[in-house]
Automatic annotation (TrEMBL):
The lineage of its organism: Eukaryota, Metazoa, Chordata, Craniata, Vertebrata. This is tRNA-yW synthesizing protein 5. Signal peptide: none annotated. InterPro entries: Cupin_8, JmjC_dom. GO terms for molecular function: tRNA binding. PANTHER family: HYPOXIA-INDUCIBLE FACTOR 1 ALPHA INHIBITOR-RELATED, TRNA WYBUTOSINE-SYNTHESIZING PROTEIN 5. It comes from Myotis myotis (Greater mouse-eared bat).
């Protein structure tokens, strides 16, 4: 969900990454495997250096808009109080009704991920060379049908 991070007292440093850079963030579920974003292990995570970071400091009274889907890392630089305000802007049926805090994928995306997992399990039945070929063909199909041309 979209989110306002309101810094009431204290100071925080916030680093944001665009959803367009997801391929460089080494995602495991919804989180990045790169734990130290200021000094990443580039031998282990070489693509991470391609991710464009947007960084800011929040002081008492500052408000930061964090768009839905943007990856973010927040570091408290001193003791403080921050408040997050999340809101849903898509039709209510798009959201998981059990998701109080907006941490779950949209329901259609969750269903698609389950279908993809089943497809990958089916591909695993093939010999490696064939599995590789059909998986690459599926990736091209997804890119052609699902990637937006508006962000290139």
């Amino acid at each position: 969900m979209d989110n306002f991070l309101i810094q009431v007292t204290g100071k925080k440093r916030v680093v944001l990454f665009s959803p367009r850079d997801a391929q460089y963030l080494y995602l495991s579920g919804t989180k990045s495997e790169v734990l130290n974003i200021d000094d990443p292990d580039l031998a282990k995570y070489p693509l991470f250096s391609k991710a464009r970071r947007y960084e800011c400091s929040l002081n008492a009274g500052d408000v930061l808009f964090i768009p839905a889907l943007w990856f973010h890392n927040v570091i408290s630089e001193e003791f403080g109080v921050g408040v997050n305000v999340f809101w849903k802007h898509l039709p209510s049926e798009c959201y998981d009704k059990t998701d109080t805090y907006g941490n779950k994928d949209l329901t259609a995306a969750s269903r698609a991920a389950q279908i993809l997992d089943r497809a990958l399990k089916t591909l695993a039945e093939l010999p490696e060379e064939y599995r590789d070929f059909y998986a690459r063909r599926m990736v091209l199909h997804i890119q052609d049908r699902a990637y937006s041309k508006n962000f290139e």
